[in-house]
Amino acid sequence: MNVKEFFEEQKNKVQKAFNASYEDAIRMKNSVTNYVGIQKKKISSDINNYVESFKESGRKVTDTWSYLPTEEPGAVMENPDVVLSVPAIITRHGYTCETHTVLSQGYLINVHRIPYPRSGGKISKKTVLLHHGLFGSSADWILNGPDKALGYVLADAGYDVWMSNIRGNKYCKEHVSLKSDSKSFWNFSWHDVALHDVPAIIDYILRNKGEGTTINYIGHSMGTTILFAMLTLRPEYNEILKSGIALAPVAFFTDLKSPLKSLAPIASNVAYVKMLYGSHDFLPKDSVLGRMISSCGFDIMDSMVCKNVIFYICGYNEKQFDKNLLPVFLANLGTGTSWKTAVHFAQEVIADGKFQQFDYGSNNQRVYGTDTPPTYDLTKITLPISLFWAQNDLLSSEKDVKLLYEKLPSTAQIYKVPDPEFNHLDYLWAIDAPRLVNEEVINTLNRVYSEA
């Protein structure tokens, strides 16, 4: 075989091998294509079967459940105000609500605002700042509903209504640096609120609303204590505020008639033990009393027990009691305060008629430079203040209110609620609150502006 024949033979072998590989590749490609096609058909068939099956099961489900509007048993809340927040309750009743956050000593204080009547209109320069009592919140001023609750009544009367919250309650559980379960977070009493928080809120309102704004302060129970303390600690606010209204004023406890009087001497010891075990907030929802409050619902027996406990502490008044409002009230009671706040009030009870700052005992010298805590100097108060009191109020007695009245300036006014059974909490929830309290509050504010 010559060289030419040799190379020709090799070329034929290479060509043959190439053709064989190409045919194998084509056969493989066809095989893969056939496999993919079969799988596509199988998947398509499975999907179609699933869809048809789902359609059939859907037709069966539609017989018992539908996207169409329907009346579902048990879906509607018996009283939404039991579970809704303050802004939600206000909005539900057709009013506008705003939430403003004020920074004070690192605490983020949420203030709820009803800027104008339910019917709308311009925001008035006439402003009212409402402050709740112990265990309360801004909810106190709206629980009685439109036409009765003072927050709504004032808004409908043309006032710009701001409702504060105390640090530590459910609307003020935040601090810019402190953990809410720390001792440092809860180391405050109403003294600190009077010295720092309320002035910060007033300043915020004035900055927000601008020139020509006038602010009237209305407090209930502890809210009045804060007012009196603030006007002595920060006397410049006597000139900044327009007037003050104190509902169930609390400054002196020389004639406390409530059974809580018997608990005052042991309050400090109880607080010490509680804080020793890491409980720094007073009456949290998971405490024994907190759970009892939470259990008070629409059930008749629960309501009777809870109602009588409240009457026992605050004064009995069945006539002004709306049993349907009890679950709403209790749902918002005990929203959080500090042991120090409760102990400060207990100290006032055993302070021999003194309205004084927190008693640190053996540490008074280090804190105040004196063996006893300083008293709040009520002679520094020059703001026109109206005191509202009730004969059956076991926490704010006639004797103590009149003692306070005598220490206030000559511009002070005093008003006795014309119902001999009216108690400490009736200011917030009484059936006849519009006639017994609200009308006089409006009249008092009208006089303030007419005399200006």
Automatic annotation (TrEMBL):
Single Gene Ontology BP annotation: lipid catabolic process
Xref: InterPro entries:
AB_hydrolase_fold (IPR029058), AB_hydrolase_lipase (IPR006693), Lipase_euk (IPR025483)
Where along the chain is the active site annotated? 221 (nucleophile), 393 (charge relay system), 424 (charge relay system)
Which Pfam families did the record assign? Abhydro_lipase
For this UniProt entry, the molecular function terms from Gene Ontology, in alphabetical order, are: hydrolase activity, acting on ester bonds
Alphabetical UniProt keywords: Glycoprotein, Hydrolase, Lipid degradation, Lipid metabolism, Signal
Which part of the chain is the Partial AB-hydrolase lipase domain?
Answer: 87-145
Q: Which SUPFAM superfamilies match?
A: alpha/beta-Hydrolases (SSF53474)
Q: Membrane spanning segments where?
A: none
Give the similarity note.
Answer: Belongs to the AB hydrolase superfamily. Lipase family.
- What is the name of this protein? Partial AB-hydrolase lipase domain-containing protein
What species was this sequence derived from? Euphydryas editha (Edith's checkerspot)
Q: Which classification does the entry list for the species? A: Eukaryota, Metazoa, Ecdysozoa, Arthropoda, Hexapoda
